[in-house]
Design goal:
- By secondary structure, the chain is mainly α.
- It is about 85% helix and about 0% strand.
- The chain is elongated and about 105 Å long.
- The N and C termini lie far apart (about 110 Å).
Length: about 110
């Protein structure tokens, strides 16, 4: 005689009741998962996560770029590197001067 044959009707009914409750819980979980609000919320969370990740990577990249540029104009001791700053400053002044002269000629 197997275990299934040895069970009493009360045990079988209790097993059926327990399985029905488990099935009801499973169906409730499925209902929550496929509810439109849940799906939209999950999609929003995924998009927000990707945006945060992308912005974080952009911030790290920009921070690295700023550090690299700063390293070109500031020595490790913290003192400015005048041999690099002066030529760049002269170049900027020259470009601004040319743009100013060019703008004045167009207006005249």
């Amino acid at each position: 005689m197997s275990d299934a044959d040895a069970r009493t009707p009360a045990q079988i009914e209790a097993d059926i009741k327990r399985r029905r409750e488990q099935l009801a819980e499973t169906l409730d979980e499925i209902g929550v998962r496929v509810h439109p609000k849940t799906i939209v919320g999950d999609a929003k969370a995924k998009v927000a996560s990707k945006v945060d990740h992308t912005l974080g990577r952009a911030y790290v990249g920009a921070n690295r770029l700023v550090s690299d540029v700063k390293g070109q104009f500031v020595a490790e001791s913290g003192e400015p590197r005048l041999e690099r700053i002066v030529p760049v400053a002269l170049l900027v002044v020259g470009v601004v001067g040319l743009l100013t002269v060019g703008t004045k000629r167009r207006k005249a």
